[in-house]
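name: query_chain
kind: protein
chains: 1
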Amino acid sequence: MIKGLLTASWLLLLLSISNLTPPLTHAEAIENSSRNAASVINVNTASAEEIAAVPGLGEKKSLAIIKFREKNGPFARIEDLKKVNGIGDILFDKVRPYITVKSDTTAKQPQK
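structure:
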């Protein structure tokens, strides 16, 4: 009898906790998405950290972009980013809304 009562109590406790979790998770998701919202960056002037913040790019790709830029000069067109080792058509299409080579568009919201 006591074992059954303890089991029922645990089930009620777990049920009440599970009902609280989704709103917290949703709130956290909203907070994270707004915090991680990327702006359009100029790959000719951005730092490695700024480039790494672009969705789809990370530390290694950002360093490769910086190295390519230092060796070959500024990118003339955003499509030139595909010349960087490890950036193909699929990755380029993913990052395209977040990058530019023009100097007047830094820190604007991406156009989708």
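note: Residues 29-37 have pLDDT under 50 and may be disordered.
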